[in-house]
Each structure stands twice: as structure tokens, then as C-alpha cells.
Design a protein that fits this description.
The chain is an all-beta fold. It has one domain: AOC barrel-like. Helices cover 0% and strands 61% of the residues. The chain is built from no helices and seven strands. Strands 3-4-5-6-7 form a five-stranded antiparallel sheet, with no helix packed on it. Strands 1-2 form a two-stranded antiparallel sheet. Strand 5 and strand 6 form a beta hairpin. It is elongated.
């Protein structure tokens, strides 16, 4: 696993995803693996969204850290 920085806090965390195609309708859920945060990212929770608009992919990471809301 690579270490990185998220809004000035250094550490690592893992994501897991579940993708389902239901009668042609895609559904994707991406979450932070519980208790996977290390360093200053220990305790991180959150979800990751992939937004497709006009043929372009955009990403939104909604997360929180103990005593921090982003």
C-alpha cells in the first residue's frame, strides 16, 4: 500500500467496492474499509462516488476523521 496525504494528513487507507448491474441499471458503492486507516488517517470513514456527466468521470470523496469533518 502507498502512503499519501489527504488534506494535509498523512497515512493510508483501503477502499472496497461492490458493483451490480440490475436489468441494465448500474449501481456502484465504494466505501473506506473499516479500521484500515493508518497514521494521521486512523479512524477515517467515508464513501467514494464516481459521477459520470456528459461522458466525463468526476470523483467525490465524502469522508470524516475523528474530530474532523470534510
Amino acid at each position: 500500500m502507498k502512503s499519501g496525504t489527504l488534506h494535509g494528513k498523512q497515512g493510508t487507507f483501503a477502499l472496497y467496492h461492490v458493483g451490480v448491474m440490475n436489468r441494465g441499471e448500474p449501481s456502484l458503492a465504494v466505501h473506506v474499509v473499516p479500521d484500515s486507516g493508518t497514521g494521521e488517517l486512523a479512524g477515517i470513514t467515508g464513501t467514494f462516488e464516481i459521477i459520470i456527466e456528459g461522458g466525463h468521470h468526476h470523483y467525490r470523496f465524502n469522508y470524516s476523521l475523528p474530530n474532523t469533518v470534510e
